[in-house]
Specification:
Elements lengths: L2 H12 L2 E2 L6 E2 L7 H4 L8 E6 L2 E10 L4 H6 L6 H14 L9 E4 L4 H7 L3 H13 L7 E3 L11 H8 L3 E3 L1 H6 L8 E9 L3 H10 L6 E9 L9 E2 L1
Parallel strand pairs: 4-9, 5-8, 8-9
Antiparallel strand pairs: 1-2, 3-4, 3-10, 6-7
Length: 232
C-alpha cells in the first residue's frame, strides 16, 4: 500500500477542506464545491495591439465573477494559498499549449505596495505554474511608478496611470547577459480588465526582441466602455 495517499486521506478526514466560496465542507482537495464550480464561466482569448503591427495574445481562464472574485481579493489579506489556487484554476481552463514558453514573467508590484502586502500575487501564480510546467520564472520587469488602483479609473485615466509604469530589470538582464532575443516570453497576471497593464508591460519586453510574446491572466473582467481589438 502506498503510504502518501493513505496519509493524505487520513489528514483530510481530520482536517476537511471547505469551499472557498460558500464554505461548504467536503473531504477532498478541491477548491470549490460542485455547485460553485458550476458558477464559473470561461472566456475567449483576445489580442491587443502593442506597437505598430506587434500584437499581444492574452489567454484568460475564466470570467471575473463569483466565486473567483473572493480568491482574487484574498491577496489583500496576505493569503498566499489563494494565489496558488488561482494558478490551479488557470491550468484547469487554459490550454497548456498556450503556456509553452521559455520564461514566465510576472507583472511586478511597486515596492511600496509589495512591502505592505508581503508578496506579489502574479509572482506566486507564475511560480506555481512554473513548478508544474517546469518553466523558469524570471522578473524581467520592475514597477518604477507607484500607480493608483485601476478599478476606480476610466479607460483614459487607466492608460495615463500605467504610462511609463514599468521598466526592464537591469540587474536581471545583466545576470542573463541580456540574452532574450528569440526567446518565448509569457506575461502572467491575476486579472485583466482593459488589458492596459499587460500592454504597458509588453511595450517594455518587446525591446528585448523576443521570438514570441504573449500574456495570461486567471480572470478577465468586463469594462463597458472598452472594445477589444481582436478576439482569437
Amino acid at each position: 500500500m502506498r503510504v502518501k495517499p493513505f496519509l493524505n486521506k487520513f489528514v483530510s478526514s481530520i482536517y476537511p477542506s471547505y469551499c472557498w466560496n460558500c464554505l461548504k465542507v467536503f473531504v477532498n482537495d478541491s477548491i470549490f464545491c460542485d455547485s460553485c464550480w458550476d458558477l464559473i464561466n470561461t472566456v475567449p482569448s483576445l489580442k491587443l495591439g502593442v506597437a505598430g503591427e506587434i500584437g499581444l495574445n492574452i489567454f484568460s481562464a475564466v470570467e471575473n465573477s463569483e466565486p473567483l472574485k473572493k480568491l482574487l481579493k484574498r491577496k489583500n489579506f496576505g493569503d498566499v494559498v489563494a494565489s496558488k489556487h488561482l494558478a490551479r484554476i488557470l491550468l484547469k481552463y487554459v490550454d497548456t499549449e498556450n503556456l509553452d514558453v521559455d520564461y514566465l514573467v510576472p507583472i511586478p508590484l511597486h515596492w511600496i505596495r509589495y512591502s505592505k502586502r508581503g508578496f506579489n500575487q502574479a509572482e506566486v501564480i507564475a511560480e506555481h505554474l512554473g513548478k508544474i510546467l517546469n518553466i523558469p520564472v524570471i522578473n524581467l520587469l520592475t514597477r518604477v511608478k507607484r500607480t493608483k488602483f485601476q478599478a476606480s479609473l476610466s479607460l483614459e485615466k487607466r492608460q495615463k496611470n500605467l504610462k511609463s509604469a514599468f521598466s526592464l530589470n537591469g540587474k536581471v538582464l545583466e545576470k542573463f547577459n541580456y540574452d532574450f532575443c528569440g526567446k518565448r516570453l509569457l506575461l502572467v497576471d491575476d486579472l485583466c480588465v482593459t488589458g492596459v497593464t499587460l500592454q504597458s508591460a509588453a511595450k517594455e519586453l518587446i525591446k528585448l526582441s523576443p521570438k514570441d510574446l504573449r500574456a495570461v491572466a486567471v480572470c478577465r473582467g468586463t469594462y463597458k466602455k472598452f472594445t477589444f481589438d481582436t478576439t482569437i
